[in-house]
Design goal:
Distance between the termini: 40 Å
Largest sheet: 5 strands, mixed
Structural class: alpha+beta
Strand content: 15-25%
Order of helices and strands: HHHEHHEHHEEEEEHEEEE
Strand order of the largest sheet: 1-2-3-4-5
Number of helices: 8
Radius of gyration: 18 Å
Shape: globular
Number of domains: 1
Helix content: 25-40%
Length: 231
């Protein structure tokens, strides 16, 4: 069982208390079906060093391995989908980096037996790149990124959406404040996001009946093993 507190000063300054593994699993079991759906998206707004996200990833990869371990290409595609669906924000830079390292280690531990310790060139590099974009140092209350001192910057938190189109990857970037602004009852798009800044263009999602922002940037399709090489 890992410690729930790193230091008294961190508790006093940031309210940092880590959730024990038993409680993590009990809470995730309440949405067990979603934790085992490979493409189900999870966002942890105060992710710490990744207690919740690590367990979600383990559950997703367990499903990937059980379904696709006989085909390395299929395993790599759906492992990419699994890690691409996991997002986290933490205000402390060391937590952010520890969470990234932890998630990458979980992928490597699951992947290396499947690929017989002969990773496909570019695969783990793509996973590393996605984790770096999905686990960010920021303030989940202000929805801004933070600097090395922990102070808010003027930049909004921006997350990437990763989706497979055949054997290639489509990346679209969204502002988190705009994503949180949309709701099923919101028929008119807001003029300003939660951070008080003008929003991007919005469109109606026919599936949910809600207004959703258009991406602030779209990228050309790229081979999975080249993700991050052309940014």
């Amino acid at each position: 069982m890992s410690a729930q507190v790193k230091s008294r000063s961190r508790v006093q300054d940031h309210g940092e208390v880590f959730t024990n593994e038993r409680e993590v699993n009990a809470m995730l079991d309440m949405v067990k079906q979603e934790t085992e759906r490979i493409d189900s998206r999870f966002l942890e707004p105060a992710c710490g060093d990744g207690n919740f996200l690590a367990e979600v990833l383990r559950r997703k990869l367990s499903v990937v391995r059980s379904r696709y371990r006989r085909s390395l290409l299929e395993y790599e595609k759906y492992a990419f989908v699994a890690i691409g669906s996991i997002y986290g924000v933490d205000i402390l830079e060391d937590n952010t980096q520890e969470c990234r390292d932890r998630l990458l280690s979980i992928v490597e531990e699951d992947y290396l037996p499947v690929c017989k310790k002969r990773p496909t060139p570019g695969f783990l590099e793509a996973i590393h790149f996605v984790i770096g974009k999905n686990i960010l140092c920021g303030n989940a209350l202000s929805l801004k990124t933070v600097d090395s001192s922990g102070a808010d910057t003027d930049d909004p938190i921006i997350f990437c959406e990763w989706s497979l189109v055949g054997d290639k990857v489509k990346r679209r970037d969204y502002r988190l404040d705009e994503l949180l602004e949309g709701s099923a009852s919101n028929i008119q798009p807001p003029l300003f996001g939660l951070s008080g800044t003008p929003t991007s263009e919005w469109e109606l999602d026919e599936e949910t009946g809600s207004m959703i922002p258009k991406p602030i940037r779209e990228y050309p399709l790229v081979a999975l093993y080249e993700v991050g090489q052309h940014e």
